[in-house]
Target: TIR domain-containing protein
Amino acid sequence: MLRTSQIKYLTNTSIQEIHGDSNRLQQIEIGAVLFMPKTLDYVSARDNQFSYGPYLWDMLHISLKTFDVSHMFTFHREDEQPQKCSYDIICKKEPDTESEMKYGMEYSDQTFQARPLPMPHQLTLLNYSSCHFDYSVLAFNLTKNILRNVDLSRNLLTSWIGPIYNVKSLKHLDLSSNFCSNVSHYFFSEDFGSLEELHLQNNILGLVLPYDYKGKVLQNLHNLKTINLSQNKIQRLSKDFFKSQLKIERIDLSENTFESIDFDIGHLKSLKYLNLKNNRISYLSASAILQLNSIGILNKIFTIDLSQNNSLCTCETINFVQWLVTTTVRLTGKKNYTCQLSDLTLVSLENIDKLYDTLSKDCMSKIPLIVALVASVSSVLIIICSGLIYRYRWKLRYAYYMIKIRSHKKMVLVENDDDKSYMYGAFVSYADEDSTFAHKQLLTKLEKENGIILCLHKRNFLPGNDIATNITSAIHNSRRTIIIMSRNFLKSYWCMFEYNMARMESIYERGHENVLFLIFIDKIASKELPLHILELVQSQSYIEYPNDEYGDTVFWDQITQVLTS
Ligand SMILES: *[C@@H]1O[C@H](CO)[C@@H](O)[C@H](O)[C@H]1NC(C)=O
Ligand SMILES: *[C@@H]1O[C@H](CO)[C@@H](O)[C@H](O)[C@H]1NC(C)=O
Ligand SMILES: *[C@@H]1O[C@H](CO)[C@@H](O)[C@H](O)[C@H]1NC(C)=O
Ligand SMILES: *[C@@H]1O[C@H](CO)[C@@H](O)[C@H](O)[C@H]1NC(C)=O
Ligand SMILES: *[C@@H]1O[C@H](CO)[C@@H](O)[C@H](O)[C@H]1NC(C)=O
Model:
């Protein structure tokens, strides 16, 4: 313990600098600090064992500018000739109020209220590096100060929760090598507005920073010029991570595990240096290239380090290779880059221009070939398919309606056995203009006089079913289909539908048995008939309606015979 009696004679001197390194100082007697000379501005007290205590409040009254208390608690071999300290409370290890206070302050419950932390009001540099300081940094409120430079590197500050208040003059903060894996969104409070340099390298911030989607961690650091995030196991950063760093000049992201540049940097107009050395970036996306180019245009000295990244030089990444060749952005050690080709060989980018030329020729010659091949194969396929569909259009429609009918439970279907019995003797297909013939002559002669039950769409179709299903089902449930052929028939869409469906029925359901029976009621010259009807007329039976008394008798006899045979 440093006592008043030991230093009180210094008070009237004009000493400016005191070195007290490598002692075992733990505490300072209350009031002793006030005897320090007024001229003092530099104290180096490295390699001691200072702990928290009430003497810290005395610090407020001295005019110290630099305080170096780094390397505290380093391991020493046991003193072979220990100092006899008969009067020293620390040596006696008696319980006393001071040490209670010490532990009380240091390990008190983690209330959120910011604790006051005394700072000599003239202090500009505090070096608290390498102190084995194992602590989760909670909320602190520093006393009035003009601190510009704080070094807390190489401690064990594993969690930065904060917020830390009243650091309005702070320009340089070193928190590197602290094994920190947790930094809160509010650790850097709005009082960090002056901060220009932030050293965070060699921590484990890759565990938290990727999840800072809104760029909150650095949101108050408007004046930041340099940030070092090297060696942090960071795989990616969100788009908005650097959204507030409009004045930033240097970003060091080397020795992480980045695979791409996803974070926005296009807005960082002052950026001079971006270090991505030793990551896993195999190529840059189009948007990353665009952003880098836009900085490069504003800033002639903008430099990016992409070395040790296993770039890929394949047809897929040709835009990236082209960028490497043509960009005005400076690339450090471009000649030292290696690039992996599609056959997995590694080439140096020393002759990158040549490499790009060969690569682009290779890729160019393949692209049109592949496109042409794909296009021709697919057009052939399309032609074949549409040809097949056209060729079998009626069969397909017939099959579709048959499936529809079969799935319809209400329709009673009679199986197509040899001794088949159909619901109707004949389905009559006619154009609406010819309905008189169908409804009068046909109905009277066939149904009333000869008992052949007819299916007429006006009379027999089930309401509610769609017309195509009704037709298909009627044809399927009738023994024959009578076509009342006329010019009107040829013009009617639904008549042609019925005709074709009946054709399909005879081919696919009745084993080519002739289902169709044509009655010509108009005189139609054969050249007026469509080809597929003409074909049928020539190969199968048809009859012309004579419309005279004698002819009529023969006509109806013939029809009745055909329909009952
Ligand atoms: C320092 O100087 C002042 C005034 O000159 C005097 O009163 C005081 O006793 C001195 N202190 C010491 C420790 O000599
Ligand atoms: C703090 O002290 C360490 C070692 O004692 C030294 O390496 C470091 O440069 C110092 N930091 C500052 C900011 O002076
Ligand atoms: C980080 O600290 C915050 C605030 O104390 C806590 O809620 C969170 O669980 C911590 N996260 C991790 C990964 O330790
Ligand atoms: C960042 O930290 C790394 C690792 O300590 C160091 O090599 C590098 O020079 C630093 N970069 C800057 C810009 O300070
Ligand atoms: C290239 O790599 C060699 C050894 O790997 C190194 O000595 C040299 O400094 C590097 N050059 C550049 C420009 O980075």
